[in-house]
Every structure is written in structure tokens, then in C-alpha cells.
Amino acid sequence: MTRRIPIFATIVVIAAVLTMIGLGIWQLQRKAEKEALIARYTAAAGNDAPVTFPLAGKGEEALFRRSEVACRKVAGIAAVSGTSATGQKGWVQRAACAVSEGVLVRVDIGYSRDLAKPDWQGGTVTGVIAPGPRLIADPPLAGLQAMAKPDPGDLPNNHLAYAVQWFFFALTALVIYVLALRRRRGAT
Prior knowledge:
This protein has 188 residues and is an alpha/beta fold.
């Protein structure tokens, strides 16, 4: 006598479906966490009180706040793609600033449509802390134009899409398994 429903295959499919549903639920929880984080960063962006620039770690507690660094020596300047305060695409000049012995801080000193490195020797930089962390100079330095200010709303929050994907994968696995069972039943 043959079994109508294969036990091992059923256990594997059920385990896979439950895992996918669990991943979908986890993504929904991450969505809520990310929304809270963005709300916290939005509140921080509205606070004009300066904070100490984080010299270690990701600096998450200081993101989107105003800060200041003393760039004692410029270790190098590189042009990276960026956006001006008016929305133009071009180049942001990013300096690696030595703030103490062996400690470098990334500072975006300004926007330009030109790739040429500006002549900037360092000094005190005020601005807004962006993810990285790096300091976005405000006002810009070395005769460069203002850059777009970091916006917490630009942080990706695509967890709902990921959750829907996982739920869809779970449903797809179930449908395929049911179709396979029907086909098997029709073959016997």
C-alpha cells in the first residue's frame, strides 16, 4: 500500500513555509524598528544644539546633529558623487582630516561640478553628522558650493517589501507542493 502524502517531503515543506513566514514577520518587526529610528533621527535633525563628533564606531547617537571638528592636517581629498543644496548632481569633495594622532575623520567640504581637488589645508569645520559617520560642512569650505543636507527620510525602509516577498515565497511553496501532490495522486 502506498502513502498518499509523503511524510518526509511534507515535513520539509512545512518547515520551509514556517521559516519563510517567520522571516516575513521578522521583516515587519524590522519595519517598525526602522520607522522608530527614522523618527528619532528626524527629531535629532531638528535639534540645533551641537554634539561632539563621534571618533569611534558608527556614531548612531549623534547622526543628523550639528557638530564641529578641528582638521589639523588634510590627509587627502577625493571627489565622490553627490548632490548640491539645489539638487544638482556633481561632485562632493571629501577630505580625510587628521583630528589627532592616528585619528581620521571624513569631512565633505563642499559641492562642485568640477572634479579638480580644491586647495584646502584644514581648519575648524562645522556642519551636520551624516551616516558613516562623516561631517557635512555647513557652510561649505574652499570656495565650494553648499551640499544637500543629510535627510533621515533618505534612509531605506524597504522591510515591508521584504516581508511581502517572504509571505509570497511561503504561499508559492505551498501551491507548488499541493500541485505536486495532485500530480502524484493522478499518476498512481
